[in-house]
Write a structure and sequence with these properties.
Helices cover 47% and strands 10% of the residues. By secondary structure, the chain is of the alpha+beta class. The chain has a 4-stranded antiparallel sheet, with helices on one face. The model has no long low-confidence stretch (mean pLDDT 88).
Length: 252
C-alpha cells in the first residue's frame, strides 16, 4: 500500500518523533546527546526554523518545531543525516540509524501546543527515568525556566501571561501537572535500561542493592512496589537487578 501523505500543518508547527531503527539506541553517552543538540542549533541558524521544545531519550527524540524556509521533511533529513554521519564515524559503523519515516502531527491550537510541550517534557518522568522533570538534562524544560539558549520560548510563555515572571511560574505549574496526555498516539512500551532503574532507586535513597536488602520488610516491599510502576520495566529485569525472586515481586 502507498504511504499516506504527511498531514500538512496550517500553523507550520509540528510535533515530531524520531526513533532508532529496530528500536535501537541513538544515543550511547552524553557526548552523543550534546552533538545532536549542536546539530539542532546549527540548522536552526541555517534554516531559520523555530524550536519550541525537545526531549532526547536513549532510543527516540521528540521535537516541537515550526517550519520556515524549508519543509519539515527537508529539515529533518538535514538534521538526521548530519548526526548519523558523525555517529557512524565515532562508532565505526555504517548504514541507517533512524527509522526511515519519522512520525509527525500538526499542532494547530494553543491548547494542544501546550499539551504537546508538556507531553515532551514529561517523557522521562513517565518512562520512570526521573521523578522531577527539572532534573532531566536532555529536554527543553530548563530553557523555559532559566537560560533559553537554543529554544524559542516566547510563544509558550506569552500564552500564560504577558508578565514574564508570572508566565514562568504558570509554565512550571502546568508542566508538572498530572495528566493522561497521549500525543502522536505513541503507546509503544518504553524499554528501560538497567542504569535507568538504578538511577530511579538512587532517587528513592537506595545507593546499592545491599542497602535495599538490609531494609525492613515494610520499607523493602514499598521500594519494590514503586519500582514496579516504572513504565517499561519488567518483573524479570527487576528481579535480576534487586536479587528479589520474580514470584515475590509479582505478589507485591
Amino acid at each position: 500500500m502507498p504511504r499516506r501523505a504527511r498531514e500538512k500543518s496550517e500553523s507550520g508547527i509540528y510535533h515530531l518523533m524520531l526513533r532508532g531503527i529496530n528500536k535501537q539506541n541513538i544515543f550511547e553517552d552524553e557526548e552523543d546527546k550534546k552533538r545532536f543538540l549542536e546539530t539542532l542549533k546549527y540548522y536552526r541558524r541555517k534554516s531559520g526554523y523555530l524550536l519550541y521544545g525537545y526531549c532526547l531519550m536513549d532510543n527516540h527524540i521528540h521535537l516541537l518545531i515550526k517550519e520556515k524556509n524549508e519543509s519539515i521533511s527537508e529539515l529533518i533529513k538535514r538534521i538526521s543525516s548530519s548526526y548519523v554521519y558523525w555517529y557512524n564515524q565515532k562508532y565505526e559503523r555504517c548504514g541507517h540509524l533512524f527509522q526511515e519515516r519519522f512520525k509527525s502531527e500538526a499542532v494547530e491550537t494553543e491548547e494542544y501546543f501546550l499539551a504537546v510541550l508538556r507531553y515532551i517534557h514529561q517523557n522521562p518522568l513517565k518512562a520512570g527515568i526521573t521523578k522531577n522533570i527539572s532534573k532531566y538534562l536532555w529536554s527543553s524544560y530548563q530553557g523555559y525556566i532559566g537560560n533559553s539558549g537554543n529554544i524559542d520560548i516566547d510563544l509558550a510563555l506569552d500564552i500564560f501571561s504577558n508578565d514574564r515572571t508570572k508566565a514562568v511560574e504558570l509554565f512550571k505549574d502546568y508542566n508538572n501537572e498530572n495528566n493522561s496526555d497521549k500525543c502522536l498516539d505513541y503507546t509503544e512500551k518504553v524499554a528501560v535500561s538497567d542504569k535507568a532503574v538504578m538511577d530511579y532507586l538512587r532517587e528513592m535513597g537506595i545507593t546499592s542493592i545491599s542497602q535495599l536488602q538490609q531494609l525492613n520488610k515494610e520499607q523493602h516491599d514499598e521500594i519494590i512496589r514503586k519500582a514496579k510502576k516504572i513504565e517499561g520495566i519488567t518483573i524479570r529485569q527487576l528481579a535480576r537487578i534487586t536479587g528479589v525472586s520474580k514470584s515475590v515481586i509479582d505478589r507485591l
